[in-house]
Amino acid sequence: MMSESEIIAGLLTGDSRATTSFVDAYSAYIYNVTHRILQRSQESEEATQDTCIKIINKIGDYNRTSPFKAWIFTVAYRTAIDYKRKQKRNSDESVLMYQASGMKSDGDLEQKEATQKIHQLLAHLSEEDGTLVQLYYLNELSIKEIVDATGFSESNIKIKLFRARKEMAKHLDKYFDVT
Q: pTM, whole model, 2 decimals?
């Protein structure tokens, strides 16, 4: 097994052994990052492959003053967010097609309604704030992990989450029976 510095040096020179070592050493970690965001195995696997390819192709962009694993996390996070946006677009299209067809299903209707209400609440937030809320509350990432992924300061993330909660609270009674 190659060391981290040997993997980086090998990737920079195009060494196939370094590529194999990189994938062996980091693919599980990348999968975990993408799966926390995407929550689906197939999309997580695709995002993991795309992340590995991006890292191998963009290794020259890596700034050696920061930890390699933090850079990997950032690339994986951004790739997963791109996939999430694509999922949302596809999901919105599916909902429209479902509504247009007039079909109704008894199974999981309450769960779908609750999920839809949460998405409506999130729609009141900016895309950035909505993503932070999803990462922190739904995907259960720590503040530190969000700092590493987004580049925002810890205090900035906490302020954004506080303001997002406040904004969502204003609209809560529209979507949920709050007593």
A: 0.56
